[in-house]
Specification:
- The chain is an all-alpha fold and about 90 residues long.
- It has a single domain, classed as Methane Monooxygenase Hydroxylase, Chain G, domain 1 (Up-down Bundle), CATH 1.20.58.110.
- Helix content is about 85%, strand content about 0%.
- The radius of gyration is 17 Å and the shape is elongated.
- The protein starts with a helix and ends with a helix.
Length: about 90
């Protein structure tokens, strides 16, 4: 464990950020799962709305640096390609 005040503060900040990033990544996984389920059911309207939600969640996570912006962009692109294949 750290001894200096600045290192203790840094540790507290890292714990807060870890919890925030974990929640963000969980919401990303749920959003992507909803899109994939809608695609599996071949429900275009549901898939489109789920993709819009997932895009928003991924873009916000990338803006907060919870995931890398290229990772978010790649996931959005792959989901959009999958939607285009069934439509």
């Amino acid at each position: 464990m750290a001894n200096h005040a600045s290192a203790l503060k840094r540790h507290r900040q890292n714990l807060k950020r870890r919890d925030r990033n974990k929640a963000t990544r969980t919401s990303i996984r749920k959003a992507i799962k909803n899109v994939r389920l809608a695609l599996a059911e071949k429900d275009l309207d549901k898939a489109r709305s789920a993709l819009n939600t997932a895009t928003s969640v991924l873009d916000k996570a990338a803006a907060k640096k919870a995931v890398h912006w290229r990772n978010a962009s790649r996931r959005i692109s792959r989901l959009q390609t999958a939607l285009n294949k069934i439509s």
